[in-house]
């Protein structure tokens, strides 16, 4: 299931992703961040579900299903560099700023700043093409929501 999706996402010239595929790719990136400190906690899963419900107007069951699909895609996805670059090519800039904000929300969900999570967010923001000002503003918005 994920191989075909990844082949499409990682094509030399990917098209703009349909909404459903973009949701899945962005969910997988949130999961990758949550797993980056080797402690994928319930509070992080809950935060991902809340982000998915709010961002995509999903009911709790649909958000959980999307998160579980994202967990599967994250496990099958290539390194973060290729994965985020593929998302950059397929997702509009404003949506990528929202992704950075969501990444910060997940990172802050457990109440602790982790160096591995911070590093992954900095890398992801850079690879997503989100400039430093927009990235910092996204972090500030996420901090006020925590």
Automatic annotation (TrEMBL):
Name recorded for this polypeptide: Tellurite resistance protein TerB
Pfam families, per the entry: TerB
Sequence ranges assigned to domain Co-chaperone DjlA N-terminal in this UniProt record: 23-140
InterPro entries xref list: DjlA_N (IPR007791), TerB-like (IPR029024)
CDD domains assigned to the protein according to its UniProt record, in alphabetical order: terB_like_2
